[in-house]
Design brief:
Chains A, B: This is Kynureninase. Two copies of one chain form a homodimer. Chain A has 397 residues and is of the alpha/beta class. The first copy, chain A, contains 13 helices and 15 strands.
């Protein structure tokens, strides 16, 4: 493990909590509240409309995009930020389908995050020309990439199991059959080394509130392979993707850069906090993070399996095909997770029976993992999840 | 004028500034920074993922939607919030076009905010079935509503001139020819009384960073007429518009309420600030605001016209067809506005020659208007805009 990790001193972590849910909502970076205060009081309050120029708001989406580009192996200027991940999925898929007008099949997998599939369904219904969405099991994706596929759209790391697709091999296969490749990096950016340029994919999208610690509802991002940008036809043709937004022309004319994937007025407050949050990555490499993540995850698996035979590993055992999370199947996963949370071990539950634990080496260390495993044992072997209060908790998330 | 306006004590207004740009970015409500601090430190930092339930984040979009509903004459539960206005335009238009599958014409006007037109163009290109966008001059809209029109999509108050469409009459005409009506309330919500239920329009959209003071990039909103909701087919079929987002079903199944117009994870920080900002409307009626706005606008027109004959009124003189802004045409409008801003009178400029001044009676009073008119005179009659520094300022906004 790298000597420089964890960097707990850069975060405000609550006392008495072992937070294994950074794969859902990252923790609060120190200084984020002060930065928000500055944006609200000094910039909005003090500079008002002028702040778009004087406080750098106009440049913020691109600046944040460049910070993210650095973390996913993308060149400067190739990543646009804003909106939500679902919107970015729609933009990427709409543009990709227009690149292959003679094909009608979108290939994803049944482990993809549902919103990606829903957005594809909504888009295909909107176009309404006999498109089909195929969702084989993740392990069957490679052989499902056939010559009728227009677009392969996958999330690299499965949100439930943590199983990781081979971006290089799948992209190569997609290209071999003439399909366009879209990668959703929701559980990859800031978690595993990504070489989006190297794999040659046309598009990548992702969110920033998980491993990038941007805060609840932080903006999403989209990467477009630079050689394609000038041919991309944005379905969501918003004014801030226009080549000259303030010329107020009546006809849409997209910017000659990835900025054409911007849509409306950016959420400055969230972007400023995200910009601040991304500073914690200065001086950290994803290789270090990945090495630490594997060490922590392997340790957690070993400890939990040794202590709790009723929990069945739902993640790949081979760390090379596992993202930065560990999932266990357990019939009583929902109440068990509530009991864990009550005891300060925060993971989450995903239907139907998955207990998820995310590992974020920026602020989680071996001692946290050992403590967490001990508390898991307490809850599972002690059957604490049977207590009435955990059986009746309403299930919102 | 109502005795209760202005309510300057509810806002943090910078010293020495007369802010006539609340129609672009509203001012900072007192307490907004403290609310943001609370969300960041106590909720995100302290409660982490649990805050979706414990801090009410899950309910925030609906709560804010209900506050906005109250201001536009919409019933509880009929307004969904999130995303940007451009996205909401796309959603409304996509749904509206599906309601009239046999018609191919979208009618707007050439005074509409360009992003609305761009989004329509992007949608029509995406559907790709011979749709046409017609953009007559605003005054010619009524007679352009013919039986081939699928959707009439207009912004009630013209962003440049402040000219106001008659919502009631135009909606009635649209319905008479079988067209669907979409109103963009960007310059209406919080500025003029709107009775969206009363006019019977199918959809309305708007933004919250202008007259609603939600801050830069605050979320947008969309209203769907309640009797139609269950038949609306969302083009942007995101997981938070799903009937059971956390069931993680593979197929999209929209919520049985306006919530189906939600898309992805909401920007909690911006929503919380907006929720706070909307509290200033408690106890204020739009009728009071409107009466004060007309008084302030009429006064400004009279004062400026008496002092500066070279400024040509670009807004309707009749306050009944004018929103809450006053625009003047002036060949040297851009440098003149820079000179005004330098002297503490903040309006803005819109191509090609429009000097815009917005009137927000919550925090602008008669003395402000008189002072502003005096400074306008100083800049225009003194030809201060000829100074080299105003001629060379780069034109970003």
């Amino acid at each position: 493990m790298s000597v420089s990790l964890p960097r707990k001193e850069l975060f405000d972590l609550p006392e008495g909590v072992i937070y294994l849910d950074g794969n859902s909502l990252g923790v609060l970076p120190k200084g984020a509240a002060a930065r928000a205060q500055e944006v609200i009081v000094d910039e909005w309050g003090g500079q008002l409309i002028k702040a778009w120029n004087t406080a750098g708001w106009m440049d913020l989406p691109r600046k944040v995009g460049n910070r993210i580009a650095h973390l996913i192996g993308a060149p400067e200027g190739s990543v646009a930020t804003g909106d939500t991940l679902s919107i970015k999925v729609y933009q990427a898929l709409a543009a990709a389908l227009r690149m292959r007008p003679d094909r009608k099949v979108v290939l994803s997998d049944n482990g993809n995050f549902p919103s990606d599939l829903y957005m594809a369904q909504g888009l295909m219904d909107t176009i309404g020309k006999g498109y089909a969405l195929r969702t084989p099991a993740p392990v069957d994706v490679m052989e499902a990439i056939t010559e009728d596929v227009a677009v392969v759209m996958l999330t690299q790391v499965d949100y439930r199991t943590g199983r990781m697709h081979d971006m290089q091999a799948i992209t190569a296969r997609a290209h071999a059959v003439g399909a366009v490749m879209i990668w959703d990096l929701a559980h990859s950016a800031g978690a595993v080394p990504v070489d989006i340029s190297g794999c040659g994919a046309e598009f990548a999208v992702g969110c920033s509130y998980k491993y990038l610690n941007g805060g609840p509802g932080a903006p999403a991002f989209i990467y477009v392979r630079p050689d394609l940008v000038s041919d991309i036809q944005p379905a969501l043709a918003g004014w801030l993707g226009h080549d000259a937004p303030f010329a107020m022309e009546l006809a849409y004319r997209p910017a000659m850069s990835t900025e054409r994937m911007r849509v409306g007025t950016p959420s400055i407050l969230q972007l400023a906090v995200l910009d601040h949050a991304l500073k914690v990555w200065e001086g950290v490499t994803l290789d270090e993070v990945r090495a630490a993540s594997i060490e922590l995850s392997d340790l957690f698996i070993a400890e939990v399996e040794a202590r709790c035979p009723s929990l069945v590993l739902a993640s790949p055992r081979d760390p090379n095909v596992r993202g930065s999370q560990v999932s266990f199947s357990f019939d009583h996963g929902y109440p068990a997770m509530q009991a864990l949370i009550d005891r300060g071990v925060i993971g989450d539950f995903r239907a139907p029976d998955i207990m998820r634990f995310g590992f974020t080496p920026l602020y989680i260390d071996k001692q946290d993992v050992l403590n967490a495993a001990r508390i898991v044992e307490e809850v599972i072997l002690g059957e604490i999840w049977r207590e009435a209060k955990y059986q009746t908790v309403s299930r919102v998330t």
